[in-house]
Design a protein that fits this description.
The chain has 15 helices and 13 strands. By secondary structure, the chain is α/β, with parallel strands linked by helices. The strands form four sheets. Strands 9-8-10-7-11 form a five-stranded mixed β-sheet. Strands 1-4-3 form a three-stranded mixed β-sheet. A three-stranded antiparallel β-sheet has the order 5-12-6. It is elongated, with a radius of gyration of 20 Å. The two termini are about 35 Å apart.
Length: about 325
């Protein structure tokens, strides 16, 4: 699925995880061979002569975003090595830190909590991005401005069931759990069920009183189906950018007490690379300004629901938006 949330939640754990990766080379990848030219970005080919490597984690959304970076770099004149679909947050992050990759999209909440070892999220999304940006410079990483694309946790309910309960926020769920505990059945992944920044913390923050027997653990993909088509899960753990939310006609509930961190997507660049090729910021800032949670849902659905190739999804959208053109 996404692997944005990792069980490693501190600087010490992160350092230990990296020990096995340092010096391993991580040189696999393949050249991007697309014949693309500048559209609204990349005019004058400001990256001509550059040889750049793009990376991503191994879930659909991040792979699509990684291909977007690569295609824009390619249109701007660079030779691009595709190293998307790396196994999880840690290896992708280390590729950027170590200079084995030059650019990827990452998430501010992941950086603030997992990479930088902080315990509490910063409620204001821009303030959290700024804190990540400032703290990560010492690691040789430069964060460009974030998008409004926020890939965070939510609770989902079918529109059919919500016609009865009219739930809009997680506080509404808490109120229902106190009024009628038997009505609230909740399906979650195993990890979410046990983590303090998951179900236990959410229940505590909102004062939810969900009987233990009403909480069912299952694979993420099954959760969406169960919430949509069965009575076993009134509510399910979901991710705000998942394409199945729209496809399965689900409502998502607002985290009105801001318990979950913001996971805004932003380009994470190896600092030496952007020092050498400062035009990267001018190329990627317009892309981030266009990306939204809704757009991510639509693009993710093309991959996860319709079965399209992530590279094609990225390329088609960039051309449709006018960022690049076919050569």
């Amino acid at each position: 699925m996404r692997y944005v949330r990792t069980a490693l939640s501190g600087a010490v754990a992160f350092t230990v995880a990296l020990t096995g990766l340092t010096g391993c080379g991580l040189k696999s990848g393949s050249p991007m061979v697309d014949d693309v030219t500048p559209g609204s970005v990349g005019r004058g080919e400001p990256l001509k002569g550059a040889s750049l490597t793009v990376a991503s984690k191994n879930f659909s959304e991040n792979i699509v975003l990684g291909h977007m970076i690569g295609l824009i770099f390619k249109a701007a004149g660079a030779e691009v090595l595709d190293r998307t679909n790396l196994p999880g947050s840690i290896s992708a992050r280390q590729a950027i830190v170590g200079g084995d990759a030059d650019a990827m999209y990452d998430y501010t909440g992941t950086a603030w909590i997992t990479y930088l070892g902080n315990q509490k999220p910063i409620v204001n999304p821009q303030a959290q991005w700024q804190a990540v940006h400032n703290a990560d410079l010492k690691n040789g990483v430069t964060w460009l401005p974030q998008s409004t694309l926020d890939n965070t946790y939510t609770l989902a309910i079918s529109k059919q069931n919500n016609a009865k309960y009219k739930l809009k926020t997680m506080s509404d769920v808490a109120a229902l759990s106190r009024k009628d505990p038997s009505a609230v059945t909740l399906c979650v992944e195993n990890e979410f069920a046990s983590r303090e920044d998951g179900l236990p913390g959410m229940q505590k923050a909102y004062g939810m009183e969900i009987p233990a027997g009403n909480i069912k653990k299952m694979d993420a993909g099954i959760i969406y189906t169960q919430v949509s088509k069965s009575d076993s899960c009134l509510l399910g753990e979901a991710y705000t950018t998942d394409g199945r939310i729209k496809e399965m006609d689900l409502d998502t509930l607002a985290d009105d007490k801001h318990f979950f961190p913001n996971y805004n997507a932003a380009p994470e660049i190896h600092s030496a690379t952007i020092d050498k090729w400062p035009a990267i910021a001018e190329l990627l800032n317009p892309l981030s300004a266009r990306l939204t949670t809704q757009i991510a849902q639509e693009l993710n659905a093309k991959v996860d629901v319709e079965g399209e190739d992530p590279h094609k999804v990225a390329k088609d959208w960039l051309i449709e938006q006018g960022f690049i053109k076919n050569g």
